[in-house]
Amino acid sequence: MECSDPKCAIHGGLKTRGAEFTGRVVSDKAKKTAIVERDYTRYMYKYERYLRKRSRIPAHNPECLSAKAGDVVKIAESRKLSKTKAFVITAIVKKKE
User: Which pLDDT tens digit goes with each residue over 79-94?
Assistant: First the structure.
């Protein structure tokens, strides 16, 4: 499906660079924006243990993909798209069941 979104990384003119992450969409309420939550571990030298952390990244949600809450998606870094968005959804890895 072709989309007319100029900020789409697949069909539009937006280039991606740098970081690529896989995460779960926790909110898709905002227009053309999805909040992607990413779980990761960080080593704590003082306690010699790993700490579980998570980050919530606002990402542009193109019309052609339109990821919904619960989907596992791949996001890539791009130029600043708005005040908070600097990532764009490039693919849906797994749909919500």
Answer: 999 999 999 999 999 9
Q: Where are the domains of the chain?
A: 16-94
Architecture category of domain 16-94 in CATH: Beta Barrel (2.40)
Torsion sign, CA atoms 77, 93, 39, 89: positive
What is the residue-averaged pLDDT of the chain? 94
**Residue 22 · residue 74 · CB < 8 Å:** yes
Reported pTM: 0.90
